[in-house]
Amino acid sequence: MFDAIVIGSGISGGISAKELTERGLKVLVIERGRKIEHGTDYMDSQMPWELPNNNEIPEEELARDYPVQRHCYAVNAATKQFWVKDSEHPYTTPEGRPFNWIRGYHLGGRSIMWGRQSYRLSPMDFEANARDGHGVDWPIRYEDLAPWYSHIEKFIGVAGSKDGLPQLPDGEFLPAWEMTDGEKLFKAAVEEAFAGRKVIMGRNANLSVAQPHHEELGRMSCQNRSICARGCSFGANHSSLSSSLPAAERTGNLTIVTDAIVHSLVQDPVTGRIRSVRVIDAGTKEGRTYEAKVFFLNASAFGSAQILLNSRNEANPRGLCNRSDQVGRNIMDHIYSLVTAGIMPKYPKDSYYHGRRPTGIYIPRYRNVTEDADGFVRGFGYQAGVMRQAGLPDPAVVGIGQTIKDRGRRFGPWVAYMAGFGEMLPHPDNRLTLHETRKDKWGIPLLHIDVQLRENERRMAKQIVADGAAMVKAAGGFVVYQTTEPGTPGLGIHEMGTARMGRDPATSVFNGFNQAHEAANLFCTDGAVMASSGCQNPSLTYMAMSGRAAHNAVEMLREGRL
Amino acid sequence: MIDLPALDRRSMLAGLGALLGVAALPPAALAAPANAARFLPPARFALLSGVADTILPTTDTPGALVAEVPARLDAMLRDWAAPATRDEIIAALDRIDTAARTAKGRSFVALSPEERAEVLRAHDAAALRAAPRADGSKPKLFDPDSVPIDPGYKRLKALVVNLYYYSSTGSEHELRYEHVPGPFEPSIKLTPESRPYLDIARS
User: Fold this and answer.
1) DSSP letter for each residue of B121-141
2) Who has the most CB within 10 Å: A188, A383, B44, B56?
3) Which of A405, A409, A415, A485 to mutate to test the interface with B (most CBs of B within 10 A)?
4) Closest Cβ–Cβ partner in A53, A178, A392 for B165
């Protein structure tokens, strides 16, 4: 019997485990994937020529085992071990409506490969649903989460600058990375041309300067390698393996089981409390159960919803904690893949930089903040960069021999690139359900995922493209490349919303303490609980909610309320 | 994976070539030893070696042979390429040989370095020209969807170029790769001696 069980060891589960163990609870973390050892299992020491097949995954293997994962930018031979084989973990989508579910099943989950961009939601984001009527009102406000954002930022280490923007609150930052000369010019020009728009340094969970509490966990300052997704042996970026699980481990209160796939939760029909969790051994396929006083769902937005749905029984035919019928609904990702690239011919030809900075710059949301929007609610931000076109000569350009070498040695123009991340509205018909007939090899029904971008997203996408071009031009450049259609939903890898928090048990699944309306000792602090998506990268919010919910759960436990 | 003694012999020869200022080595020196565990049969491997050496010859810096590009590309044809890719790349190689026979009446490997460069330069220019678009319109500048006349050649050349730059040789002599750059320096003044760093897939 454990005090608490945390289901999932990714970015939110790692923090749940840390916060619960540090408060004295005996915690079991259940991970469906295999064990990964920090450092020794990473391929971050290999030089490029030491990687198999020039860091390419064999074509037939890629087509056979990774038909979905291959669409993720970070999939290559050096990271291959961290992505699920789609061939082993299928799901279904409606004809003509693909969804790319990008994921990794192993200890630490996607916290190893995540993009590390770390932004707070703002007061405006927590009020958005109440204001424009989409979704349900968040049961919390920015002030509820602000101290927990600070707590997490300090622990994980977030580099950033204090920019004083109400739509993107400042945090407890390590020194920010610095802009290139091209970025400084771009910033000045954009801010001059568009009052209210700001170009700031990206905020990222890499240790620009490791602090003593990071070093105690064996973490070091970032070496600007930008091979973070291979796993960082320096522990310079936050992951469950580098950071949260070691912190949990040193309390002496942590137990981890891997290769244990959660099948369902067992609820006491009288008290409504969750009694135990049913697990299937990934290897032997044998079942077993674990009991605890408190349960934290951190299996990822889709994984957590799947567990609730698959916990259905006669009394709860729609699944556990689902009287609201909201489990599986309101899937959001971020509008993604809307890229603008422009050449900046007048930027200084004699300036360069050294190192592979592990973040770009960021243009926080301004639509429906300081500027009106063209027929849509909410807004978007851009991840961006202004770098020299230099390095590997393009083999598609005509020329051989010395011509190629000369081209490789040349410094090309500065290139500005901007990738929009747009807020998606919660829509009840963007939903996942359990497949009626098909099951995975552990006997768990497959997910059927049905998501589409709708009118608000389409209008926003148009503005992302138009504004991108306008800013490149305003900064003295000309656009050489633009994508005009958003990428397949899922590719933002920010899927969320499948078991939203809210005030009303009739329309939401979890309350303002991330506690299930229908099961007092069940908490969820992954992307499932998001009532709206903002346009900010969401992991920091999941971690802040994990810290806050763990704190409250332990208080409730001590007061005998669980 | 890779037959090391064979590689060593070939790099040594190529290194010698660099020392002597020879842009390409005679075909006999390039041919794989009979016992090498190659994917490509000897004649095609020699053709690949000749082509790689012509795309990136040893000049003031070592070329593709020193960087062991042919052997690494051969291994990729075996370990990485799907059959269709293999066929496409081999066919692209064979077209270069055909071009040599058409223009010079001899196989590509039998040509002098100067003749190889002449043949491949013309072939490269023709092969990489954008193919007419399906709707008959003219290809646009910076068109990411543009397809060259000979896509197989483009892939072959890309493999040679990539394997060269992502080699210890390429990284030592052309674009420097730093595995652990250390502090990020946001602004560096370029001099005529400055070289770009080799970037990598950032993940």
Assistant:
1) HHHHHHHTSBPPPTTSPPPPT
2) B56
3) A405
4) A392
Q: How confident is the model at residue B135, as a pLDDT?
A: 75
Q: For the range A233-236, what are the long-range contacts, defined as Cβ-Cβ under 8 Å and sequence gap of 24 or more?
A: A233/A38, A233/A39, A233/A42, A233/A44, A233/A45, A235/A38, A235/A207, A236/A206, A236/A207, A236/A210
Could you write out the DSSP letters of every residue in A474-520?
HTT-EEEEE--SPPPTTTTS--B-TT-B-S-TTT-SB-TTSEETTEE
Q: Are B159 and A353 in contact (CB under 8 A)?
A: no
The answer to whether A209 contacts chain B (CB < 8 Å) is no
C-alpha to C-alpha distance for A247 and A224, rounded to whole angstroms: 24
Residue closest to A292 by CA, chosen among A519, A509, A105, A444:
A519
- For B199, the token pair is 């970037």
What integer is the mean pLDDT of A439-443? 97
Rg (CA), chain A: 23
A229 touching B, CB under 8 A?
Answer: yes
Q: Which of B54, B57, B175 sits opposite A408 (nearest CB)?
A: B175
Using a CB–CB cutoff of 8 Å, tell me whether B102 touches chain A: no
> Which segments of A317-449 does DSSP mark as H helices, in order?
402-409
Handedness of CA B180, B184, B187, B188 (dihedral sign): negative
Torsion of CA B149, B150, B154, B160, to 10 degrees: -150
From chain A, the residues in CB contact with B54 under 8 A are: 400-401
**Cα–Cα separations (whole angstroms), residue B120 to B27, B43, B67, B98:** 16, 18, 20, 11
Q: Say whether B165 and A408 touch across the interface (CB within 8 A).
A: yes
Average pLDDT over residues A556-562: 94
Chain B's closest residue to A232, CA to CA, is B203
Residue with tokens 């990489």: B128
Please answer yes or no on whether B154 and A351 come within 8 Å at the CB atom. no
Please judge whether A224 and B182 are an interchain contact, meaning their C-beta atoms are less than 8 angstroms apart.
yes
Count the neighbouring beta carbons within 10 Å of the beta carbon of residue A193. Answer: 13
Residues in chain B: 203
Q: How far apart are CA A537 and CA A492, in angstroms?
A: 9
In the three-class reduction of DSSP (H, G, I as helix; E, B as strand; rest coil), residue A267 is classed as strand
Q: For chain A, say whether B76 makes contact (Cβ under 8 Å).
A: yes
Distance from the Cα of B89 to chain A's closest Cα (Å) equals: 14
H or E segment to which residue B8 belongs: helix B4-20
Nearest to A383 by CA among A358, A357, A361: A361
Tell me, yes or no, if B171 comes closer than 8 A to chain A by beta carbon.
Answer: yes
Return d(Cα A15, Cα A246) in angstroms, integer: 11
pLDDT tens, residue order, chain B (203 aa): 333 333 333 333 333 333 333 334 444 444 444 445 899 999 999 999 999 999 999 999 999 999 999 999 999 999 999 999 999 999 999 999 999 999 999 999 999 999 999 999 999 999 999 988 777 776 665 666 778 999 999 999 999 999 999 999 999 999 999 999 999 999 999 999 999 999 876 55
Alpha-carbon gap, residue A156 to A24, rounded angstroms: 21
- Computed over every residue of chain A, the mean pLDDT equals 97
Q: Are B82 and A397 inside 8 Å of each other by CB?
A: no
Give the mean model confidence (pLDDT) for residues A72-91.
Answer: 97
A35, A107 in Cβ contact below 8 A?
yes
Exposure string for A203-226, b = 16+ CB within 10 A, e = fewer: bbbbbbebeeebeebebebbbbbb
The reply to whether residue B190 touches residue A76, judged by beta carbons under 8 angstroms, is no
Chain B nearest-CA residue for A225: B180
